[in-house]
Amino acid sequence: MQTGMRKSFVIFYAIIIYAIAQLTWWGFLLVRAMPSKLPMILLEGPIFLFVFFAGAYSLHKTIKHERKLQEQKKNFLLSVTHELKSPLASIKILLQTIQKRDLTKQQISDFIGKSLMDIERLDDMVENMLLASKIENSSYTFPKNKFSLSVLVDSIVNRLQITKCEGTQQIIDAEIEPKIEITGDKFALTSVVTNLIENAIKYSGPCETVGVKLFAKNDKIYLEVADHGIGISDDEKNRIFDKFYRVGSEETRNTKGTGIGLYIVKQVLDKHQASIKVKDNQPAGSIFEVVFG
User: Fold this and answer.
1) Segments making up each domain of the chain, as ranges
2) Rounded Cα–Cα distance for residues 106 and 223 (Å)
3) What whole-number distance in Å separates Cα of residue 80 and Cα of residue 246?
4) pLDDT tens digit string along 98-117?
5) Span 80-104, mean pLDDT?
6) Residue 60 CB neighbour total at 10 angstroms
7) For 16-48, what is each residue's pLDDT tens digit?
């Protein structure tokens, strides 16, 4: 892919150079053959060059954007492959262990629980990709019904809660105001809350606390997800909701992910007339604030 795009750039620049050389040569021949046309050439030549270079610059940006998009798609496919293989390998090992070893009832229950967590992880990823595809194709209608957002957020927090840090310490610190109801697409909003919390955990250090707040204020509903992770630079804050975009450099990034989670978040919230913004957390990390209403 890179070789093909590099070849396209070489051909593009070669055509530009050839066109300029031809324009200069024919202009020279025209002036030599008809000196009276010199004022016309001096007047129209710069206009033609301006239009020509404006078009060339626009084409250059398009090719460059397409090159970047192709690179992001390639990284997306590699990430998806890795994200699918990891839980599948884990499930396979756990089930083989249950099958081949004489385990206690408690051990079997523990292994099955771990397998179910990996299956939920796979299910979340598949749902993300399906929803992203439907949104892009405008084939998803976002059916809206009234439901308890408090119950939804609480259930997702309980599912994603990790209790392996320092014995029983829970890394998700949730403050959920009860009886908050909303009219919206429950399935799509489940993906929004899941993606925001999983992102916060993913980009935080091991056993770092992630804060989740849900509350109502001034006839608006607020959902805040805060982490103490690597943070997001000001230059990237407006780009993180683009499809396939991921924070940091592709060469140095170690965090897993596909780059479609926050894209889904933004698209779904736009369909609910809700806003989302990213703020810096103190002393480090980020706060994602969603406002409904």
Assistant:
1) 1-140, 145-292
2) 38
3) 13
4) 999 888 999 999 899 889 98
5) 86
6) 15
7) 787 778 777 877 777 777 777 777 767 777 777
Cα–Cα distances (Å) from 249 to 21, 188, 217, 237, in that order, read 39, 29, 38, 15
For the four alpha carbons of 134, 136, 140 and 145, in that order, the dihedral sign comes to positive
pLDDT of residue 94: 93
- Kindly tell me if the per-residue pLDDT of 168 is higher than 70: no
Q: Which amino acid is at 7?
A: K
Q: Between the CA of residue 77 and those of 5, 10, 20, 71, 115, what are the distances in Å? A: 19, 27, 41, 10, 24
Q: How far apart are CA 132 and CA 121, in angstroms?
A: 17
Superfamily for 145-292?
A: Histidine kinase-like ATPase, C-terminal domain (3.30.565.10)
User: Distance between alpha carbon 278 and the CA centroid of its chain, in Å?
Assistant: 14
Q: Does domain 1-140 have CATH number 1.10.287.130?
A: yes
Q: How many secondary structure helices (H) and strands (E) does the chain include?
A: 7, 7
C-alpha span between 71 and 63 (Å, rounded): 12
Angstrom CA distances, 270 to 121, 144, 248, 282, 293, stand at 25, 14, 25, 28, 12
